[in-house]
From TrEMBL:
Protein name: Protein N-acetyltransferase, RimJ/RimL family
Domain of life: Bacteria
Record GO terms (molecular function): acyltransferase activity, transferring groups other than amino-acyl groups
Domain N-acetyltransferase: start-end pairs: 17-187
InterPro entries tied to this protein: Acyl_CoA_acyltransferase, GNAT_dom, N-acetyltransferase
Keyword tags: Transferase
Length: 187
């Protein structure tokens, strides 16, 4: 069965940022940093080996675009420099953490380079993506699942208007499941 849709826009602009699906060679070092920085990966399973990240990137850069639906790089809209990534994709039914019987809810994920934390960029990018999704898709619950120890991520979820509803174990860590109706972002 085909997956229910997610965002289709190739670009989503906001005040300081541009979310884009296109990938350029100039994005390489920033994308490597996102997957190998121990601080950025502290609640995401730890840093990944650089050679594995480079191999994966070679394939993705060759296609010139992010590969999975709802997947964006977050770029500074004046320099086009990548500061992070954002995903609004379907949460697989066989994973724990759902708020509907059918599962496959939209799930929001975000990762910023360490140097970009503390400036409201994740909030701005998430708001722009959720607003675009709310105009494109019918109302439905959106999830954010984050390690309970990830205080910055939980704070961001709360600022976006997501409500914590349960906790569960995955990847040997306690996860907090937060949710918000997509329609609340249709402003
Ligand atoms: C989770 C993560 C994206 C949060 O980044 P962040 O920069 O703290 O998030 P926000 O965009 O909400 O920014 C909030 C901070 O910017 C400050 N800020 C500065 N200018 C701002 C502005 N114009 N608007 C809003 N906030 C602003 C806020 O005061 C707040 O500061 P504080 O952290 O000192 O309280 C980041 O920590 C990260 O990438 N972590 C690693 C990846 C990860 O764990 N992702 C979660 C997986 S779901």
């Amino acid at each position: 069965m085909s997956q229910p849709p997610t965002l289709s826009a190739a670009q989503i602009p906001s005040e300081r940022l541009l979310l884009r699906t296109t990938l350029h060679e100039a994005d390489r070092e920033a994308l490597i940093e996102l997957s190998t920085d121990p601080e950025v990966r502290a609640h995401l399973g730890g840093p990944q080996p650089r050679h594995e990240v480079e191999q994966r990137l070679d394939t993705r850069l060759a296609t010139g675009a992010t590969t999975s639906p709802g997947s964006y790089v977050i770029a500074d809209n004046t320099t086009d420099q990548v500061i992070g990534t954002l995903m609004l994709a379907r949460r697989a039914t066989d994973r724990p953490g759902h708020v509907t019987e059918d599962g496959e809810e939209l799930e929001l994920g975000y990762v910023l380079r360490r140097s970009a934390w503390g400036a409201g960029f994740a909030f701005e990018a998430a708001t722009a993506a959720l607003r675009a999704a709310a105009h494109e898709l019918p109302d439905q619950p959106v999830l954010i699942v984050t390690q309970t120890a990830n205080k910055r991520s939980l704070k961001l979820a709360a600022r976006l208007g997501f409500r914590p509803v349960s906790t569960f174990e995955e990847f040997d860590a306690e996860q907090t499941l937060c949710t918000a109706p997509l329609s609340t972002f249709r402003t």
